[in-house]
Design brief:
This protein is of the alpha/beta class. 39% of the residues lie in helices and 31% in strands. Helix 1 (41-58) packs parallel to helix 3 (89-99). The N and C termini lie far apart (43 Å). Residues 1-132 form the RNase H type-1 domain.
């Protein structure tokens, strides 16, 4: 096990609902995915969180801090709020299964301006929208 690892995650779609894109920043490197189908912003945030957990598992981390700006996802993933959405419940179930075996997992809510993955995703969108 590699020990402690902090991952910032963010997901979004434009329009909402629409094509989902996610970003995870781990050890200063941004990992993007945009092959995730269509959905709404909450689904995009959940898929970003699941991507972050997959990266943490691949790094053999046993103490994981997941940092995001979605109050819905952070609340549900941390167990502070109940998931009442049949649309989001499968993501919560997948998260619980994915973190099984990781000794310590914490979730922290930060403002969007402090979410490194959100910043990376916005920069990627801006550079894709700018003409060559």
């Amino acid at each position: 096990m590699t020990g402690r690892l902090t991952l910032h995650f963010d997901g979004g779609c434009r329009p909402n609902p629409g094509p989902i894109e996610t970003a995870v920043v781990m050890r200063g490197v941004a990992h993007f995915r945009d092959d995730l189908g269509s959905g709404d912003n909450n689904e995009a945030e959940w898929l970003a969180l699941l991507h972050a957990v997959a990266l943490a598992r691949a790094a053999s981390a046993d103490d994981v801090l997941l940092v995001g700006d979605s109050a819905v996802v952070i609340g549900q993933a941390s167990g502070r709020t109940k998931c009442r959405s049949p649309q989001l419940q499968p993501h919560l179930d997948a998260f619980k299964a994915a973190i099984a075996g990781i000794a310590r997992v914490r979730c922290r809510l930060v403002p969007r301006s402090k979410n490194l993955a959100g910043i990376a995703l916005a920069r990627r969108r801006d550079s894709a929208a700018s003409p060559g």
